[in-house]
Amino acid sequence: MSLKSSQKAATLAIINQMVESNSTYFQDVDIARTHLICTLFSAGIEQARKTKGQGIIGSGNNAFGIALGGVVCSFRKEINPFEKYEMWTRVLSWDRKWLYIVTHFVRKGQVKPRRFSMYPQQQTKDAGTRLVFNKEDAVTASALSKIVFKKGRLTIPPEVILQASRLLPPRPAEVPLLPTQVVAAPAKRQIAQEIFDVPFRAFEKLDTIWEAARNSILPEPKPQRAESRGGSPDGTATDKTSDWTWARMEAERARGMEMAKHLGNLEGLTMEFTAEADALGKHSDLWWFLGLTY
Length: 294
Prior knowledge:
Helix 3 (42-49) crosses helix 4 (158-164). It is built from 7 helices and 6 strands. Strands 1, 2, 3, 4, 5 and 6 form a 6-stranded antiparallel beta sheet that branches. By secondary structure, it is of the alpha+beta class.
């Protein structure tokens, strides 16, 4: 199921080309992806952030975070100045490390969902109708993102967060875990990763200090009651996993991975950097005396 967000082409985004700027799509994808994560995975994230031995991954004090691993966007049609459009975002698939999320940019009002399962109070008239013969005609662009859940340096498999958010049926005992693909990183990349992790480690220390101060003030949390909201922030949703067997869910996950694996294959694109080759030249941006070059 998709989460729908609304947007309108902004003036600054269209001032150069008189159509929606390509870079604006990625900003909208960031917002739509965040809405989906906070809506679906709130229960799982809450469990992952706990540090008093009650969390789903133990009692470590490392900070929980969600990192973006990559985004690609395919453009089909332009969005005209001040045209309203919608972003339909859903989980496409996942593997042992990455969760893949797809966002479709749809012309506003041309496609309507049959119902709003998580927020029934948002039901509207003419549900399930569309103003185009083929639903693809309403799609102006599609973006695919991959994210990873982290607890410090520890990677949390997406399935763990999905289970904690009560979005999956129980895994059968005879079904093995998803395989882990280990790809050796180049030495320079490992050094860059160490430098990149410095601010995150500092944030972890601050988060640990804040957690210790809060725990010293607040009383011990009460045992959590059994809920069936399925990750809904307002408790209006019901648990729908009973409609999905593990076999049906796994078939849908495997189908989505046929598309998602193409984004994963871009990991090897770094090796196409020809640093030892000749360059055509060097251009200066703005004025040469400012020293802004690329």
